[in-house]
Amino acid sequence: MAIHKKFCQLNNPLVIIYLHGHKKIKGAMVGFMKEEESHQESPILRWHLVDEKEKMTLGVTEYGTKFGTIVETGDIKAIYFIEDNSVLQFD
Question: Does the structure show a pLDDT above 70 at 38?
Fold first, then answer.
């Protein structure tokens, strides 16, 4: 998947995600959730974003509780990658 490939290449995970319905979310991509975690080729279902100032936390508190925003892959219309000013468009 194009998003995953780009995610793995980033030094700076800051993005703006444009969703269907004209909503946008700005944050740092810190992780993803797959259909089958143990399978390399399993599709990514959701992306985990946190506020820019919290990107080093990976979206997990000291007690192991997750925080941030979970975005369904199918809801994404486009992603703007701040690091290199590139955009991935989706139908």
Answer: no
d(CA 68, CA 36): 22
Report the predicted TM-score, pTM, of the whole model to 2 decimal places: 0.82
Q: Quick check: helix, strand or coil at residue 89?
A: strand
How far apart, in Å, are the Cα atoms of 30 and each of 21, 77, 81? Answer: 24, 19, 13
Backbone angles phi and psi of 19, in degrees to 5: -100, 160
Query: Strand 14-19 vs strand 69-72: parallel, antiparallel, or unpaired?
Result: unpaired
Instruction: List, for residues 53-79, the tens digit of each pLDDT value.
Output: 887 777 788 877 888 999 999 999 999
DSSP letter string, 21-73: TS-EEEEEEEEEEESSTT-TTPPEEEEEEE-GGGGGGTTB-TTS-B-SEEEEG
